[in-house]
């Protein structure tokens, strides 16, 4: 058996494959982007064949670079969550494109279910809000819009999967139709309390049970690849939603520990331990991981626009040439000017859940320049995180638990910005830890697969593999923090209110 682990990190805009060695250090990688398909405003699709082809191509490249298939002890998969694929069981061919998590086409259906009073049952069982974000209404949409598919589903001819399941099916040549508990907990069809598909939710969303994969532990033997894919049969030992995988990769395995991942969007997860906690503030309750049949839970808050706001400065406004320039500009901006940018480009996520809100910039004076705008863009990530963490901690402590550690561990492309990380520490008023290995999403899946392959010790020993690059310590005065928070709150309220005034 080889001493390497291959991780497939199938994300929203690109697919990455990374090979980790015996010490869980990355030794080879490959990455490919694929097209985003926008058939209508608010609709976002991926061609599942693109997801598969980029997976196979990057995985083959990384395996070749790291010494060949005989060095690989097993595979871990971390994936974009909620994105929905339905395919034919006999051919493995999708009957429609993958409907991506960001897709809003089922907003009306969700509103209808909310009017029918379904939100409490969804929150109680699935731990989620009624929103097009999750898979269930996407499945029903495909079945209602691809002619004949409801009948085919009833006959048992079709299969559903989130991206992990689809890739597993393809890797194993259709031998395995399974998902893990973290991915299943994002469909809105799972009772997260029992870890099983729930008949009430299945009926409510009209997504037939015949389509659904088997739900398994996050770490375990999911199946073996066909030898034609890599020139050897390789076992698949772990699958996890990418945000949950990052929670593991950050070694946030104790209740009270939190991680924030900043890519295009931002995802903050707080480990809450073995009991699911219901948020009083619109946060999601989700399965953090499951092994040996035991589930652990997290509270999750999503920021729709984090790095995307920086991309807008670059591509939409053209006021910076590269993402890295935003921090340099913010550093030399005028501290006397308090400009607020509320990045509701695609609405606001938790804790507001206002799909109709739109972006606003407030506090501009004649003296404002692109420097102050760049600062406001970077600060918006800190403010949004602060809002989410505050309510998360409140929910956590309302359950009787105490958060002993205030640190937030960060990862994702945007944490390259020292300026943004320092502001984050300042505004949340807590240390922000950036690890040496920023590929935390892949690292989580690697840890789990390596553990099951007998290469790494169990999850309790992960600390030895996590190294600190830099701790950002709060330096802002308490008075200034409160002033800035009040300014941000006023800007958010004005943004939400403005929308209400529209017809
Ligand atoms: N130095 C930086 N300062 C601010 N934002 C950055 C910086 N470097 C990258 N980003 C932002 O991070 C995002 C890319 O992060 P990544 O984790 O690769 O995202 P994703 O996986 O969502 O594609 C981009 O939106 C980019 O604008
Ligand atoms: O692909 P990412 O990294 O943008 O993550 C997407 C999330 O899993 C969506 O819930």
From TrEMBL:
Q: Where does ATP bind?
A: 12-14, 264, 307, 311, 413
* Name of the top EC class for this enzyme: transferase
What EC number(s) would the UniProt record show? 2.7.1.30
Binding, glycerol? 81-82, 133, 242-243
Instruction: Kindly list the positions annotated as binding sn-glycerol 3-phosphate.
Output: 12, 81-82, 133, 242
Q: Which residues form the Carbohydrate kinase FGGY C-terminal domain?
A: 259-451
Associated pathway = Polyol metabolism; glycerol degradation via glycerol kinase pathway; sn-glycerol 3-phosphate from glycerol: step 1/1
**Keyword entries, A-Z:** ATP-binding, Glycerol metabolism, Kinase, Nucleotide-binding, Transferase
Q: Which residues form the Carbohydrate kinase FGGY N-terminal domain?
A: 5-249
- Enumerate the PROSITE patterns for this protein: FGGY_KINASES_1
- Regulation of protein activity: Inhibited by fructose 1,6-bisphosphate (FBP).
Return the Gene3D superfamilies for the record: 3.30.420.40
Q: Name one GO biological process term.
A: glycerol catabolic process
Reactions performed catalytically: glycerol + ATP = sn-glycerol 3-phosphate + ADP + H(+)
Which GO CC terms are listed, alphabetically?
cytosol
Q: Which InterPro entries does the protein's record reference?
A: ATPase_NBD (IPR043129), Carb_kinase_FGGY (IPR000577), Carb_kinase_FGGY_CS (IPR018483), FGGY_C (IPR018485), FGGY_N (IPR018484), Glycerol_kin (IPR005999)
- What are this entry's molecular-function GO terms? ATP binding; glycerol kinase activity
Give residues annotated as binding ADP.
Answer: 12, 16, 264, 307, 413
Question: What Pfam families does the record tag this protein with?
Answer: FGGY_C, FGGY_N
Q: Which family does it belong to?
A: Belongs to the FGGY kinase family.
Q: Could you tell me which NCBIfam families the record lists for this protein?
A: glycerol_kin, PRK00047.1
Instruction: Quote the function comment for this protein.
Output: Key enzyme in the regulation of glycerol uptake and metabolism. Catalyzes the phosphorylation of glycerol to yield sn-glycerol 3-phosphate.
In its UniProt entry, what is this protein called?
Glycerol kinase
Organism in which the protein naturally occurs: Roseiarcus fermentans
């Amino acid at each position: 058996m080889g001493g390497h682990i291959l991780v497939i990190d199938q994300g929203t805009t690109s697919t990455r494959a990374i090979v980790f060695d015996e010490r869980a250090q990355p030794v080879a990688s490959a990455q490919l982007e694929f097209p985003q398909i926008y058939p209508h405003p608010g609709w976002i699709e991926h061609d599942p064949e693109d997801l598969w082809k980029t997976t196979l191509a990057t995985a083959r490249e990384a395996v070749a670079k790291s010494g060949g298939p005989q060095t690989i002890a097993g595979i871990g998969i971390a994936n974009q969550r909620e994105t929905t694929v339905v395919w034919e069981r006999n051919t493995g061919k999708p009957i429609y494109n993958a409907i991506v998590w960001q897709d809003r086409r089922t907003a009306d259906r969700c509103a209808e279910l909310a009017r029918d009073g379904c939100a409490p049952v969804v929150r109680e069982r699935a731990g989620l809000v009624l929103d097009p974000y999750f898979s269930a209404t996407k499945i029903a949409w495909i079945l209602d819009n691809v002619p004949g598919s409801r009948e085919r589903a009833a006959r048992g001819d079709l299969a559903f999967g989130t991206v992990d399941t689809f890739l597993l099916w393809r890797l194993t040549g259709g031998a395995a139709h399974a998902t893990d508990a973290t991915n299943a907990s994002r469909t809105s069809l799972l009772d997260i309390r029992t870890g099983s598909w729930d008949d009430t939710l299945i009926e409510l969303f009209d997504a037939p049970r015949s389509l659904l994969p088997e739900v398994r532990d996050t770490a375990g033997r999911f199946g073996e690849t066909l030898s034609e894919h890599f020139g050897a049969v390789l076992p698949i030992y772990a699958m996890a939603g990418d945000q949950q995988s990052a929670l593991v990769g950050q070694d946030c395995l104790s209740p009270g520990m939190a991680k924030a991942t900043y890519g295009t969007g931002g995802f903050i997860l707080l480990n809450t331990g073995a009991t699911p906690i219901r948020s009083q503030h619109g946060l999601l309750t989700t399965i953090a991981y499951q092994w040996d049949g035991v589930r652990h839970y997290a509270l999750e808050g999503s920021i729709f626009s984090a790095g995307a706001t920086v991309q807008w400065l670059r591509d939409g406004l053209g006021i910076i040439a590269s993402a890295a320039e935003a921090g340099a500009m913010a550093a030399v901006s005028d501290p006397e000017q308090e400009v607020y940018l509320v990045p509701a480009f695609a609405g606001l996520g938790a804790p507001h859940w206002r799909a109709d809100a739109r972006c606003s910039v407030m506090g501009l004076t004649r003296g404002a320049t692109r420097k102050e705008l760049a600062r406001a863009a970077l600060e918006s990530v800190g403010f949004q995180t602060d809002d989410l963490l505050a309510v998360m901690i409140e929910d956590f402590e309302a359950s009787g638990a105490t958060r002993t550690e205030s640190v937030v561990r960060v990862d994702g492309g945007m944490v390259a910005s020292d300026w943004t990380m320092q502001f984050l520490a300042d505004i949340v008023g807590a240390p922000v830890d950036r690890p040496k290995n920023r590929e935390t999403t892949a690292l989580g899946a690697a840890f789990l697969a390596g553990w099951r392959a007998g290469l790494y010790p169990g999850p309790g020993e992960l600390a030895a593999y996590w190294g600190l690059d830099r701790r950002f310590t709060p330096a802002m005065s308490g008075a200034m923090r409160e002033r800035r928070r009040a300014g941000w709150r006023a800007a958010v309220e004005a943004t939400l209110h403005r929308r209400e005034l529209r017809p």
